[in-house]
Amino acid sequence: MRWGIVGGGTAGPAAALLLARAGHEVVLYERVENPLPVGAGILLQPTGLAVLRRLGLLQRVLARGERIERLSGHTAGGRMVLDLGYADFREGLHGLGIHRGALFAALWEAVGAEPGVEVRTGHTVEAREETPAGVVLRGLHSDQPFTSEPFDRVAIAGGARCGIRPPGARVTPYPWGALWFVAHENPRPGVLAQRYRDTRRMVGILPSGEGSVSVFWSLRADALEAWKAAGLDAWKREVAALMPEVPIHAVRTPEDVIFAPYFDVVSPTWHDGRTVWLGDAGHAMSPQLGQGANLALQDAAALADSPDLASYSRARTDQVRFYSFASRVLTPFFQSSLPILAPARDLVAGPLHAWGWYRRQMVASLVGVKTGFFREMAIPE
Ligand SMILES: Cc1cc2nc3c(=O)[nH]c(=O)nc-3n(C[C@H](O)[C@H](O)[C@H](O)COP(=O)(O)OP(=O)(O)OC[C@H]3O[C@@H](n4cnc5c(N)ncnc54)[C@H](O)[C@@H]3O)c2cc1C
Fold first, then answer.
1. Which ligand 1 atom minimizes the distance to the CA of 97?
2. Is the CB of 96 within 6 Å of ligand 1?
3. What is the per-residue pLDDT across 87-122, written as a single tens digit (0 to 9) for each?
4. Per the structure, how many domains does the chain have?
5. 350 and 276, same structural domain?
6. 170, 266 in Cβ contact below 8 A?
7. Domain, as residue range, for 341
8. Is 204:245 a contact under the CB 8 Å cutoff?
9. Which of 96, 123, 157, 280 is deepest in the core (most CB within 10 A)?
């Protein structure tokens, strides 16, 4: 079949590679003219790493990222809220902190070398149209309108802000997002460490490979202008007070810090006619559980394995629904204007770790294998 794929972030290139290797012809559209490896660190889970192994990219990303053994979260006063080790799930298991740019570079290089994939950069796809001959994509290329040839199937992987959504999808910008910056030193090797001051302040350090870390600071989207106006020094003091080991001196100008907003995209299904949705375009969620890129990679694998698009939607339902729901429920406990939630979190979450069942559920959620409250899948081989 001839496939058109919209979006060259995570899900798009992964799907392009797997479909081409299954014998399909693929055209990949990316709106950026010269895509560059940029972006904050992300945490890849064993589920996402399994897809990268299938793509033949595992050794490459392992070499660029840093193995993450634990997730640890404490209040400003030092009370433990989260302390989960991948080894608690299975000995030898780990996550991988990696710059999004390094993951992107690995996927793009592979796509560029894949004979069955044609890449069309600088193409912003604005609409799809189902015609008797196939699905036609329309949009802009160098400010000029273009219309594609008809495709047998189309996959939309345009990310959280994509303009083409599944039927019935609800898109809600989350009021909070994150400031992030990169520092080239690593005070907490192997650990994704977070600190919280009620629900309105959170800082996190994610080791991201090659001796660097990505630092995240929780901020309301509508407070961004006030943050800029207040100047860097006041903020740097606040960060250092909450987590002294943050290498805040790496920030010299406001341009060193980037704001990333969050979106919730909830959809009843991820296919319509001959079109299918992958990744954030169909199910964006806050990154509190660190699953978005992993789900996007697993979408690509499921698409390549599904005999038809309805089977794909069915195959993705349980896991995506669980993480989408869990992110919406849990995020306000860590990033919200509801500080009233913090005392319950701080009182209960730490002691609950001593209860084996709770610990197991939390670790399974981190690993990425939950498909329901009482269900989990195996990590793909
Ligand atoms: C601050 C932050 C931290 C995060 N941390 C984690 C983490 O630790 N772990 C994790 O798994 N996930 C994390 N995520 C989520 C993760 O980044 C996303 O879930 C993942 O990138 C989704 O992949 P995607 O392929 O769906 O979309 P994207 O990676 O966003 O790619 C979309 C691509 O489509 C292109 N595009 C968009 N519109 C069009 C169009 N109309 N025409 C053509 N091209 C188009 C874009 O240019 C882009 O290249 C985080 C997100 C944020 C914001």
1. 8
2. no
3. 999 999 999 999 999 999 999 999 999 999 999 999
4. 2
5. yes
6. yes
7. 2-67+100-171+265-376
8. no
9. 157
